[in-house]
Amino acid sequence: MRGHIQRRGKQSWRLKFDLGCDPLTGKRKTRYVTVRGKRADAERELRAVLYRHDKGVAIDPSKITVAQFLDEWLSDVASQRVAPKSLERYRGLVENQIKPHLGTIPLQKLRPANVAGWIQTLIGLGKLSTRSIRHAHGVLRTALNHAAAIEVVERNVASIIKPPTLERSEIATLKEDEIADTLEKMEGHSLYPIVALAIGTGARRGEIAALRWSDLDIDAATVRIERSLEQTKDGLRIKPPKTAAGRRTLSLPAFAVKAVREHRRQQLELRLALGAGTLPADMPVFGDVEGNWPSPYSITDRWRDAIKSRKIPKVTFHALRHSHASALIAAGLDVVTVSRRLGHASPALTLSVYSHLFNNKDEAAALAIDDALSK
Q1: pTM of the full predicted structure?
Q2: CA angle 279, 259, 335 (to 5 degrees)
Q3: Is the pLDDT of residue 11 over 70?
């Protein structure tokens, strides 16, 4: 391969270089690159271009924009590898947070400075949380990883610029006395058995919504978590747990057993009254009388209404899961046991979420080692 440098202006140079013959057409392949600066800069760039082609890592010129590439990536790659609910989130971030600011830039001309400026713009707008900005950055970084892998770009510029640091705040939970008070206030409410399971097992909303009667052994006081119910714009979808640890069998506290037993009795009476027969083993625990799955969104909406009508502490439904974990930690259970009950992939994840609660036991640890030494 040979190259040639031609002056195009006072501080502009055109590089012309020969890439040899195309093996398919037999025609010679010639590329042009414009460089601004001194001749030494042009010579350096020419050497770099020829070196990359010689090593087989050269990137063919492309005029595709960031927006065009992201659309193709979402349709072809992300749609095959990402769960529908996550794909909805990806599309929303691309359309609302990435395209308006970076979409018109040619993909191969996207630079770290563009990414850094974009992040500062999102922060300056004051409309997004730090977590949302990090998610938007993560989507761009993932897409550009693919662009680099298929050699559309030489490097992932989004990996160079780090997103804003997420300040970890303590998770809002029900305190020990509030848990009992909440359960008492929820008695008689249609959502009570769901709340009882959330507090009593730490299961996620989708996991509780996906329960079938065959997953519950009321006499043995256990529940088997094997799937989750996800709600997307296209409807409801049953999906498996993200990891093997997500499949687990949990023992039920007495209040949860009582709540589920009463719920089963009411559901069975209603079906018999309507002539629908007994409860099939594969029927959703919290579905309607016809066996349709419950809407996870409606569970959250009903919880919000219950908070107002029954004067319950203002926490999210997901906070019931955290309340369960907090109660276990306060009772002295070790991190491995807590992690298994929550279905976390590893105890490290549990520690990253609840480390502030385990830290509260540091004084007790000091007293314990003191006691050991005195013996």
Answers
A1: 0.70
A2: 110
A3: yes
